[in-house]
Design a protein that fits this description.
heterodimer; A: 565 residues; alpha/beta; six-stranded antiparallel sheet; globular; B: 588 residues; five-stranded antiparallel sheet; binds siroheme; binds flavin-adenine dinucleotide; binds flavin mononucleotide; binds iron/sulfur cluster
């Protein structure tokens, strides 16, 4: 129908369009059609939806990154997108909300990110009707965790329960989320415009999501594995150096490791079930031997209650829903017959990855990555036990190979070279700060660096002491304060040292310094935050409200950053 | 510039710049990231009675853990004449338990050292000492060290009177600085520095450590001639007449360097009258202060100043400064150099129990609960404590009725059994601290000596010498902290597991030994001793000690490089002082 050269022209133009742009163009042309049929003058249609809210709940910055990319793209379509982190979101606005997008990741064991907790709980408790609401949820997650994108699923369902109408079905993304997420947003934009321009929304079926390629798995070799604590310490904290030439990471990133189960435990189960260790089974479209499954794939320790419940169903018996190891479970409540192993596999969960803050810097430790692992010791009925992954890592001999991935944390990054930083990292919390210091030392960054470290005893638990002394010597480390809790009668922790040097700390902050906190979430990070407020109140002579405001501002400016666990 | 127009040693400069020994301690103590102190404070902390050390056994392992060396302080008490009250002993016992390794180490200068005190525990420790009336001030450093005094009251009715001299000397030669109180005891800062003006030490202190000892013949238990300044009490029919004053004693030598040598003090003359004696002591110090070498610390001790300027100069200069002349030395006679183990009773009928403490280490171990026993004794408050220069302890001033109480405790803890069962050799042996705390140690000493003795004892039995009170001493380096050159058998560490064998010293500390064989390992030591003992047993004349025999037989003729022996020979003709006018030290 078109004259061939026109056709050529169109094709040329179209070839320069991205998929999203094509979605839009389609809507545009439809609109043009529509309008020309009314008036002769052709004015391009602005989609009537010109205001949307994009919320995000993030731990390590991926969701935030997407949110701002989406907002930018929306603007080019004349849509004014307000982006806001879920912890900043005013919950009373929800009922008034018309177009809401939520990008939310899943943390912990299927939990929402700390910053989304308030919102998450609100929509679960509250039953206010959200009749106006048209929404879409993009869930970020990682298929290697048992509960893939759980937080996103919950939010999507809950909003629906409260009367919200899905603008777009829930989309769950694995760690390689970029293209998929953008495709999803393209469709959202398409929807928004078609809402305005035609009710026929399904001209384009949602792009079929390609199979996830998963995350980049590195293969490294253990160079050294040293316990940093001296004899007589209650702690066992290993400095582990891994060689991996092709590794790419930035200070602030973490290493993801999927631990292997100890052979003894595996053998015990194989024996109990009397299964041929070499017999293969399919697990997540992969053929694996029984031994391989139990050693590398399935979580057999401390099964969550949900699994225990499923097992109870499988063997239809009442089992109190408590956490328990697979061996004990099978011993106390045996499988009726061992050929039910397949079904057992189906209800068991994969071994969840564990993260370890990287304590090296690509600038200072080329071709290597270092982590700082505390052996997680605990007692169960007088029996000393160790955490699976920390035990696995701290007992890895030199020369062994180990698989891992890099978990990026774009929220926990060094500021500009000339900016000061205050690092609060007791215990293994020092890990990323060793990376920061090594990095700033290697790059000759001019910003001042202040470290607050703490542990139990000066003599046995001063992690990286000699390195820190050298950095102090050379000036890389401007100031360092230490809190050794058990070297005197009264307990002394990092927050006490913060307060002691409160005046100076406030001066640094007023000077534009960023403050970083890493280590245990409870009680450390909360105590530190309370102390920070006190300091701002006292030395900034502010009211408590002003202090809170000050700290909130720090957070918003990305100058108060936490990597706590 | 020093007297010899050589540039001053760095230590001299540090001392003078130290603002009365204050240095940068405030900063050093505030520095959280290290258990050590600023470099310059190393030299100064000694004046306060402490050394910063590290556990040498742990260096490599800690380095691998990215931990600094295991630094700690060694703290040395000032106990004139080795005397400490039971109450003070209890304090000491408790502090040692709380803040140090727990072991109380009796030193060869009859005081106590605590090891392994962490920086954070130093102030609390010194505060507690202070409250108990104890101090560590000037027990190390270039000052007058702990003043020695014969520790066996039983030996003489004049003991108390003489001990009083020791206390006076210690008091008068204490540095005047207020720094100790300011830094360690949170005392007021001294504004008017005139108040701590120090006529003796000025702002430069002594060129080197300065050691004073008082012996009460006939026992030379304190090895008096090993001191820079030796006072030998002259007692005639139970009355103290005065003292022979001798100068230039010192043990330290350096392997393969004949410019550094051990030397016994040379007698200058006799002084009587308390004020005169104290004056003479004081002026010996001022002469050394003014003439001692301040550019090379290796030759800064008084012994080298004596040899450089000669005895005549010293006699004249001393008399000039004192404003009176010294008399010719009076005759005296040393017969022994030991502790009298077991029970003894003095002229007043008071009882004394001397117990054997291996290498002076008071602790509880699987073999013996010595530490607990002594605490119990102290708690009775019925016995005075006196440490000896042989690293032992005398429980004294025990009233007749209380004797049984002490006896019972000592029996119950098997202390008496332990003392009685120790061999003659063991009872007269000493070893210095050496590894793992001494930074200068080349070889083991106190940790190894007991094991070696286990292997030597059979040799003595084999040759029927098990009752001979042969004096054997071991050090981990040539500095001579257990006075090995003044022993009949001296083992001086040259490298891990290697020792130089010195023989030929006499039993009373008037003649030093000589190097006989170099760097022997254990096996070689044992073979050598087996041969020496055998020969001695078969060839000795009546009553001839091993030391005297060995000297004549093996080392007498060894060419006289300027070893200490040469001095002791001219100084103290053998066997004893028969004719004093033959003593060149007096033919000035
Ligand atoms: C504890 C003690 C040995 C013992 O097992 O009892 C000792 C231990 C040390 N002596 Fe000594 N000396 C000890 C009596 C001696 C003696 C014996 C005496 O004074 O009768 C001597 C030989 C006599 C003399 O002074 O000539 C002695 C000559 C030295 C020397 C060599 C001095 C010299 O003139 O060159 C040094 C090294 C130095 O000062 O540079 C030294 C240095 C040391 C140091 C402090 C090592 C150091 O400088 O860092 C040793 C500490 C080891 C430790 O970990 O405790 N010590 N030292 C004695 C403590 C005495 C006291 O209470 O004050
Ligand atoms: C972002 C991030 C960074 C991190 N950085 C570091 C770091 O730098 N260094 C570091 O050491 N850690 C770090 N961690 C923590 C680390 O990821 C692991 O959580 C930690 O090592 C414990 O894992 P595990 O497998 O050893 O213990 P797990 O086996 O997972 O056990 C964890 C806890 O579960 C309970 N438990 C497990 N089994 C049983 C049982 N049988 N009975 C009863 N209770 C049981 C215990 O309370 C135990 O403490 C980080 C975590 C995060 C999220
Ligand atoms: C400690 C931790 C626990 C996690 N747990 C889960 C989980 O249970 N389920 C899941 O799908 N993803 C889980 N993830 C993966 C994250 O959701 C994924 O990395 C996501 O990209 C992070 O996005 P964010 O940077 O916006 O927080 C976890 C990540 C971390 C660091
Ligand atoms: S003799 Fe040497 S090794 Fe022994 S304590 Fe003295 S300095 Fe140390």
């Amino acid at each position: 129908m078109l004259v061939s050269n026109k056709m050529k022209l169109v094709e040329e133009i179209l070839s320069t369009f991205t998929r999203e742009e094509l979605f839009w163009l389609n809507g545009y042309i439809a609109g043009k059609f529509h309008s020309t049929s009314q008036t002769e003058t052709a004015i391009p249609v602005k989609p009537s939806v010109n205001k949307i809210t994009i919320t995000y709940g993030t731990e390590t910055g991926n969701s935030k990154k997407l949110a701002s990319e989406f907002a930018a793209k929306a603007k080019t379509r004349g849509i004014n997108a307000k982006i806001i982190s879920l912890d900043q979101y005013r919950l009373n606005d929800l009922p008034k909300e018309e177009y809401l997008l939520s990008i939310i990741s899943t943390q912990g064991d299927g939990e929402p990110p700390a910053a989304a907790k308030k919102f998450y709980d609100h929509i679960h408790k509250n039953d206010s009707k959200l009749n106006k609401l048209k929404y879409g949820v993009l869930a970020l997650g990682d298929t290697s965790y048992p509960l893939f994108c759980k937080a996103g699923e919950d939010v999507d369902q809950q909003l629906n329960k409260l009367g919200g109408e899905r603008l777009m079905p829930l989309r769950k993304c694995d760690v390689d989320y970029e293209s998929e997420a953008h495709a999803w947003f393209g469709q959202v934009l398409h929807q928004l415009s078609s809402i305005a321009n035609s009710n026929n929304t399904d001209i384009f079926a949602p792009a079929v999501t390609k199979k996830s390629t998963g995350k980049k798995i590195y293969n490294g070799t253990i160079l050294s594995n040293t316990n940093l604590n001296d004899r007589g310490s209650n702690k066992e904290t290993h400095h582990i150096e891994i060689a991996a030439d092709d590794i790419e990471y930035l200070p602030g990133d973490s290493l993801g490791v999927i631990p292997e189960n100890p052979v003894t435990a595996v053998e015990a189960i194989l024996q109990l079930l009397d299964i041929d260790r070499t017999k293969t089974f399919s697990f997540r479209n992969e053929e694996v031997t029984a031994f391989g499954l139990l050693k590398k794939k399935l979580n057999i320790f401390y099964l969550p209650e949900r699994v225990v419940t499923k097992y109870a169903g499988l063997i239809n018996q009442d089992i109190p829903p408590t956490k328990i190891g697979l061996f004990d479970l099978l011993r106390i409540y045996p499988l009726p017959n061992n050929n039910q192993f397949e079904q057992l596999i189906d209800i068991l969960e994969p071994i969840a990855p564990r993260l370890y803050s990287i304590s090296s810097s690509p600038e200072a430790h080329n071709g290597e990555v270092h982590i700082t692992v505390a052996k997680d010791r605990f007692t169960v009925q007088e029996e000393q036990k160790c955490g699976l992954c920390s035990d696995y890592l701290t007992t890895l001999p030199e020369e062994t190979n180990i698989e891992f991935y890099v978990h990026k944390n774009s929220l926990f990054r060094l500021p500009a070279d000339d900016k000061d930083i205050i690092m609060i990292g007791p215990g293994t919390g020092i890990a990323p700060f060793r990376s920061f210091l090594a990095h700033r030392d290697a790059t000759g960054a001019s910003g001042r660096n202040w470290l607050l470290f703490g542990d139990q005893h000066f003599v046995t638990d001063f992690l990286y002491q000699t390195e820190l002394q050298n950095w102090k010597e050379t000036g890389t480390l401007t100031k360092i304060n230490l809190a050794f809790s058990r070297d005197q009668q009264e307990k002394v922790y990092v927050q006490h040292k913060m307060l002691q040097h409160g005046q100076e700390l406030y001066e640094w902050l007023s000077n534009g310094a960023s403050i970083y906190v890493c280590g245990s979430k409870e009680p450390m990070s909360t105590d530190v935050e309370d102390t920070l407020l006190q300091i701002v109140e006292k030395f900034g002579n502010k009211t408590i409200e002003e202090a809170v405001q000050f700290v909130e501002q720090l957070k918003e400016d990305g100058r108060y950053l936490k990597d706590v666990y | 510039m020093a007297e010899n127009n050589q540039p001053l040693s760095s230590t001299e400069r540090i001392k003078m710049a130290s603002d009365g020994l204050r240095g940068t301690f405030v900063e050093s103590l505030a520095n959280e990231i290290t258990g050590s102190i600023n470099e310059d404070d190393y030299a100064l902390v000694r004046f306060h009675g402490m050394y910063v050390q590290d556990d040498r056994d742990r260096r490599d392992e800690r380095a691998a853990k990215k931990l600094e060396r295991l630094y700690s302080f060694m703290i040395r008490l000032r106990l004139t004449g080795g005397v400490i009250s039971p109450e003070q002993y209890i304090t000491l016992h408790n502090i040692a338990g709380e803040n140090s390794t727990g072991t109380l180490k009796i030193t060869t200068r009859q005081t106590i050292q605590l090891h392994g005190v962490l920086k954070s525990k130093v102030k609390p420790t010194l505060k507690a000492f202070n409250q108990a009336g104890l101090t560590t001030l000037a027990t190390c450093g270039d000052v007058n060290r702990n003043v020695l005094c014969s520790s066996h009251p039983i030996q003489s009715p004049c003991h108390t009177e003489i001990y009083d001299y020791a206390r006076e000397i210690a008091a008068r030669m204490l540095p005047k600085t207020n720094a100790y109180y300011e830094i360690w005891l949170n005392g007021e800062k001294l504004i008017d520095k005139e108040l701590e003006a120090d006529p003796l030490y000025q702002n430069r202190y002594m060129p080197r450590k300065f050691k004073v000892g008082i012996a009460i013949p006939p026992n030379n238990d304190i090895d008096v001639l090993g001191n820079d300044l030796a006072l030998i009490a002259i007692i005639e029919n139970d009355k103290l007449k005065g003292f022979n004053i001798a100068v230039g004693g010192g043990m330290s030598a350096t392997h393969g360097n004949s410019d550094h040598y051990a030397r016994l003090a040379s007698v200058l003359g006799f002084v009587s009258g308390k004020e005169n004696v104290l004056k003479a002591v004081y002026e010996v110090a001022t002469i050394q202060r003014d003439y001692g070498n301040r550019s090379d610390r290796k030759v800064a001790r008084l012994k080298y100043t004596v040899d450089r300027l000669g005895l005549p100069f010293w006699k004249e200069e001393l008399e000039r400064r004192c404003g009176f002349e010294m008399e010719a030395p009076r005759p005296y006679r040393f017969e022994s150099r030991k502790d009298f183990y077991g029970w003894e009773q003095n002229h007043e009928g008071l009882w004394y129990y001397t117990l054997y403490i291996e290498n002076g280490r008071i602790l509880d171990d699987e073999k013996l609960s010595l530490k607990s026993a002594l605490l119990e004794v102290a708690k009775t408050g019925k016995a005075a404590f006196t440490f000896t220069c042989n690293q032992n302890l005398i429980l004294g001033n025990i009233q007749q009725p209380d004797k049984a109480i002490i006896q019972e405790i000592l029996d119950r803890y098997k202390i008496i059994e332990h003392t009685d069962n120790a061999s003659a050799l063991r009872k007269n042996a000493m070893a210095c601290v050496a590894l793992n705390t001494c930074p200068l140690a080349l070889a083991e000493a106190q940790r190894y000596m007991p094991v070696l003795l286990d292997k030597i004892e059979p040799l003595l039995i084999k040759h029927g010498l098990e009752t001979d009170e042969i004096i054997m001493r071991m050090t981990g380096c040539p500095n001579g902290c257990s006075r090995p050159y003044a022993a009949e058998i001296g083992l001086v560490g040259s490298a891990l597991g290697k020792y130089n064998l010195h023989i030929g010293g006499d039993r009373i500390g008037e003649r030093l030994n000589k190097l006989y064989k170099e760097s022997l390992n254990e096996e070689e030591i044992l073979t050598m001793l087996d041969y020496l003992f055998g020969t001695y047993k078969s060839e000795r004349t009546d009553g001839e000690t091993f030391g005297d025999f060995a000297f004549e037989k093996w080392v007498h003729s060894t060419d006289l490089i300027r070893t200490a022996s040469s001095f002791s020979e001219i100084n103290m003709p053998k066997p004893y002082h028969i004719a004093l006018n033959e003593d060149p030290a007096i033919r000035l």
